[in-house]
TrEMBL record:
Name recorded for this polypeptide: Uncharacterized conserved protein
InterPro entries per UniProt: Extensin-like_C
Region Disordered, residue ranges: 21-71
Domain of life of the organism encoding this protein: Bacteria
Extent of Low complexity compositional bias: 21-33
Residue ranges constituting the Extensin-like C-terminal domain according to the UniProt record: 92-272
Pfam family, one: Extensin-like_C
Phylogenetic lineage: Bacteria, Pseudomonadati, Pseudomonadota, Alphaproteobacteria, Rhodobacterales
Length: 272
């Protein structure tokens, strides 16, 4: 009888023992004792902890190149569209200057390290205008500017001087500036002047063979021939130049005639 009871007890306990064995974790899922817990994430770091490396040439905030970045050598900047010259048009311009008798020479390209937008791709250095009228001093400008200045001198300024017989023929035109990299009206900010592209010349006065020179200045409607000459050359300049400013236009142009060949839509002229 005792043997039968013992057998029954063993059979009843077997399922419980087997259940405990199957529930025990396998040793392969337990981390080895040498494994260290991961370090805590630094404060402020997002879920993506992989740092993005800068692309070559990429700058950090503030415009500085990362210290560990590769220095990229910039290529020569392309010629600004504003100063680029059309080869065929330039060739025709040279021919026209020679036909008029303008004394000039082709010069090296002009650039300015302070402002890449300034410059003249194919400048000419003009020493004398048609009729052997000296340009004082010699000036660098675009060929288009030189052509407008030459035509104005030949067709208008020189003929106007013939009405001043006591002064003799026109022998020189004095200017204050041709090419110069600066802002309009010499202000520190704002748009670049047409001088910065070689498109402008500032006429200060006129020299004659025997008589007194005529300086560009405000005139008080005194009815003199000097006033008439200044009025005539100023008015006719608008036929050759797209911008003509002078005494009375504003304070910046009280002592000279600003002439330029700025391109505008529909060949619009600004003559004041």
């Amino acid at each position: 009888m005792r043997t039968v009871l013992t057998t029954v007890l063993v059979l009843c306990m077997a399922p419980a023992v087997m259940a405990q064995e199957s529930a025990a974790p396998s040793t392969s899922s337990v981390p080895p004792e040498t494994s260290l817990p991961p370090e805590p994430r630094p404060e402020g770091l997002g879920s993506a902890s992989v740092e993005k490396l800068p692309d070559p040439g990429e700058t950090e905030p503030g415009g500085t190149v990362p210290e560990n970045d590769v220095t990229v050598v910039d290529s020569v900047p392309p010629v600004s569209e504003r100063i680029a010259e059309d080869p065929e048009a330039l060739k025709e311009c040279y021919s026209a200057l020679r036909a008029l008798g303008t004394a000039f020479e082709e010069a090296e390209a002009i650039t300015d390290s302070s402002d890449a937008a300034c410059g003249i791709e194919k400048p000419v250095r003009v020493t004398a205008l048609p009729g052997n009228v000296e340009l004082r001093p010699a000036g660098h400008m675009r060929c288009e500017t030189a052509l407008a200045l030459s035509r104005w001198t030949k067709d208008h300024a020189t003929p106007a001087a013939e009405y001043l017989p006591e002064r003799g023929p026109l022998v020189a035109i004095e200017h204050g500036s041709t090419y110069i990299c600066r802002r309009r009206n010499n202000l520190p900010t704002g748009e670049l002047s047409e001088h910065a592209y070689g498109n402008a010349v500032d006429i200060m006065g006129f020299q004659f063979e025997t008589g007194a020179p005529i300086a560009v200045e405000p005139r008080e409607r005194d009815g003199t021939m000097a006033e008439a000459f200044q009025d005539a050359v100023r008015a006719t300049a608008c036929l050759n130049f797209t911008t003509v400013l002078g005494p009375g236009s504003d304070a910046s142009h009280a002592d000279h005639l600003h002439l330029d060949v700025k391109s505008r839509r529909n060949d619009f002229r600004l003559c004041q």
